Amino acid sequence: MSALLATLTPRLEPASTLAAVQRCWSSAVGAQIAGSARPLAERDGVLTLVCEDAVWAAELELMGPTLVSALNAAIGREALQRVRVRADGARRPPDGRRFS
Asked: What b/e string do you get for 8-39 counting C-beta neighbours within 10 Å, with b at 16 or more?
């Protein structure tokens, strides 16, 4: 059963750049970034990230070109041109945990 699900699952995912980024997010950007930010949307090559605070938002904006390169390499195509980052502590899970 698990072998069947493993072959079926990729076909059930939406065929979008956002889905591809979400699938490889942690491995492409590392645990520290993945624990503090997450991909929220993608439109016309611009990936919107939401993170827990303004300090992270500023840092990730500076890291934008590096993140774009790592993510494009991870998804196997040049789909992203830049990232846009917004701080939104209100999106933290109700129990106060960090994004992950």
From this structure: eeeeeeeeebbebbbebbeebbeeebbebbbb
Q: What's the token pair of residue 47?
A: 């990936």
pTM for the full model?
0.75
Distance of alpha carbon 23 from alpha carbon 79, whole angstroms: 14
Per the listing, tokens 């827990």 go with 52
Go through the domains of the chain in sequence order and give each one's CATH number: 15-91 (3.30.300.180)
Question: Contact 51/37 with Cβ under 8 angstroms?
Answer: yes
What is the average per-residue pLDDT within 48-74? 95
Residue-level pLDDT at 52 = 85
